[in-house]
């Protein structure tokens, strides 16, 4: 069974609802897969700060765990409330974790730092990414794409590397379908840019059983 932590900036002025919807999507999956969950700790906006992370994440180590984040990002950190609550300064706390985030840019500096400090595997983006959240159908597609590798990892026998490749393939299918249907070119271009910004670092052979804590 897996210890799971989800940080999400639900009070963000621009994307708060989207971040919360992504979190709810995974929370619903975890409800269906209770047999995989040892503990589930949601971290909403008020708790997305350095003090909370520095106190509550270290006790999870040295056991493996899954950390998920739906927030804004810069190249060296996850952002919330005007500051970085996970950065190259405190990334040592995430040793032994699978670190999965949809935050922009963190694949550039934060991800390599995480791996250097013992994080098992990182999945995220190394460029700016964009979602369309006003239109319900488009919003659902972006949520589906953002969470795809995580869902594949949790519900199949795929390694994290295989789940990551499935995610990229899913993006491609959505892009091809959008082109076929003559969907909004902006929507299609956002999907393509997001897919091309995806990175997976660390142990690509990691399986969910490797995160089990008994």
**Poorly predicted segments:** none
The biggest beta sheet reads:
6 strands, mixed
Number of helices: 6
The protein's oligomeric status is single chain
Mean pLDDT: 96
Total strands: the figure is: 9
Computed structural class? alpha/beta
Order of strands across the widest beta sheet? 2-1-3-7-8-9
Order of helices and strands: EHEHEEEEEHEHHHE
The general outline is globular
Rounded to the nearest angstrom, the distance between the terminal CA atoms is 7 Å
Query: What is the gyration radius calculated from CA atoms?
Result: 16 Å
Q: How helix-rich are the residues, as a percent range?
A: 25-40%
**Strand coverage percent:** 15-25%
Describe this structure in words.
With 214 residues, the chain is α/β, with parallel strands linked by helices. Helix content is 40%, strand content 22%. The chain contains six helices and nine strands; from the N terminus they run βαβαβββββαβαααβ. The chain has helices at residues 16-32, 50-56, 110-116, 136-155, 160-181, 185-196; strands at 2-8, 37-43, 65-70, 72-74, 77-80, 83-87, 97-101, 121-125, 198-202. The strands form two sheets. A six-stranded mixed beta sheet has the order 2-1-3-7-8-9, sandwiched between helices. A three-stranded antiparallel beta sheet has the order 4-5-6. α1 (16-32) runs parallel beside α4 (136-155). The longest helix has 22 residues, at 160-181.
